[in-house]
Amino acid sequence: MKLLQCYIDDIIKTALMEDINYIDAAADNLIPPEHTSAAYYVAKDSGVVCGIEIAKRVFEMTGGNVSFNILINDGTKVKKGDIIAELKGSTLTMLKGERTALNILQHMSGIATATNKCVELVEGTKASVTDTRKTLPGLRALQKYAVTVGGGKNHRYNLSDAAMLKDNHIDAYGGITAAVAELRKHIGHTVKIEVEVRTLDELREALANKVEIIMLDNMSCGEMKQAVEITDGAALLEASGNVTAENIRAVAETGVDIISLGALTHSVKCFDISMKIKTK
To answer: Which of 13, 39, 70, 142 has its CA 20 to 30 A from that of 236?
Structure first.
């Protein structure tokens, strides 16, 4: 998965403008332009690195004149104390880009780490772990990339990717059957339909309408097992709602095909990484 450079650069530019504005009141008044330093990125915990190339790009856009030697690439597991990258060059550039680079790197590594934990917990089952659209505005592609680095898969990127009928669509239109019938009159042949169901009766109705994917919303593991038996492979089943690291294995063992977790992106804990300037 390769993100467009223009997309990454726009995010970095926005972050830098927010953080620096027009001067760095400390560094610009303290450090002469010709001053150079050596520094390194160090992991403060165990996890999965993600976003290191973007961190490198931050320093290129902040002022350049810094060599950024990546020692550990995206997708690699690290432990506390591991050196992730080494920097050498303009001290001003390092100081101005430090926080922006770390904010992005820590956030993306946190997502990759949390995803990897969930993927490992469901290992041996057929369930795949996916994200949702519960992402931070403007950062969706970065966050979804981080999910894939952690071993997960991506749900739809946006509302254009698939026709997903959630509870509010169904309630507003007047039921699953009517909504699916009307939808099929308008969508193209490449667009899949996913329907969210809250009960086993709604599941049966969705199956009768031959939709491709059915989301089991906040169902118990017992209900999901029944749903798997009723569906018998006629549609992909997605478990969603109140899934945690503590119960994800039990959810996977019900036989569902997909487990989606909004928490992978909307409330993930940052992975702790520090930049340290070497003292002579």
So the answer is: 142
User: How many Å apart are CA 56 and CA 276, to the nearest integer?
Assistant: 15
Alpha carbon distance 208, 180 (integer Å): 11
Between CA 239 and CA 256 the distance in angstroms is: 7
- Find the DSSP H helices in the chain: 5-20, 27-30, 52-62, 91-121, 140-149, 167-173, 176-184, 200-208, 221-231, 248-252, 263-266
DSSP-assigned states of every residue in 145-201: HHHHHTT-B---SSTTS-EEE-HHHHHHHT-HHHHHHHHHTTS-TT--EEEEESSHH
pLDDT, tens digit (0-9, with 9 covering 90-100), for 21-77:
889 999 999 999 999 999 999 999 999 999 999 999 999 999 989 999 999 999 999
Global confidence as pTM: 0.94
- Match 């994800």 to its residue by tokens: 248
Residue with structure tokens 């950062």? Answer: 139
Q: Which pLDDT tens digit goes with each residue over 95-129?
A: 999 999 999 999 999 999 999 999 999 999 999 99
Residue type for position 185: K
- Residues in CB range of 207: below 8 A, 6 or more apart: 214, 230, 231, 234, 235
Please give the full DSSP string across 127-142, using - where no structure is assigned. PEEE--S---TT-HHH
